[in-house]
Amino acid sequence: LASDKGLAGAYSSNALKLAVAEISACDDEVVVITSGRKARDFFNRRGYKVLSAHFGYSDRPTYANAAEIAQDAIAQFADEHFDELRIVYTIFKTALSQTPTCEKILPVEPPVKEKGKASASFIFEPSEDETLQVLAPKYLETVVYAALVQSAASELGSRMTAMSSATDNAAKLVQNLELSYNKARQASITRELNEIVGGVEALKQSQN
């Protein structure tokens, strides 16, 4: 998950660096599903196999966007285009701090049973398979939506920080330019005064 637009500091590049690191650590063939124009362009330029690309909503994602990505991933998983799905996104902490992270979301693994705890049996109506067929896609949509919202908050925080830094730098640049302008103006005035005084002295000498 990355942004659609630039001017967001290192937000997209940090997430993409983590994705490349995860890909490099994998010994098997890797395929990519991207969210955001920056991610699509990044992986296309570098020759990665991009199965599908989703974009146009990175700073304002909706649940429908998450459902679209999740259903795409489920279909690709069912067609055996990959056997494990990991999602790389950015966790929002503060406007100044965002942390890229990678999580495995397919296949869904059951929670590990803790030692010493009694296991309870459940009766499913309808059956377990029918229940999972409904709940599994909803679970994946929820996970993707949470990642999209975290990424959107991180993108906006990073963009706000980048714009604030750019504004501060512009103000400093204006101050430096004003100082340089005033120095040049003062030097020009001093030079003109010297020329006038020199001309007056030359006239006096010629008259004498």
| Anisotropy-based shape | rod-shaped
Strands, count: 4
Class computed from helices, strands and strand pairing: alpha+beta
Number of helices: 4
Q: Helical amount among residues, as a percent range? A: 55-70%
Order of strands, widest sheet:
1-2
Oligomer: single chain
Largest sheet: 2 strands, parallel
Residue ranges: pLDDT <50 for 5 or more in a row?
Answer: none
Topology:
Blueprint: H1 11-24, E1 31-35, H2 37-45, E2 49-54, H3 63-78, E3 85-94, E4 97-106, H4 128-207
Parallel strand pairs: 1-2
Antiparallel strand pairs: 3-4
Helix pairs in contact: 3-4
Brief synopsis:
57% of the residues lie in helices and 15% in strands. With 208 residues, it is of the alpha+beta class. It is rod-shaped, with a radius of gyration of 30 Å.
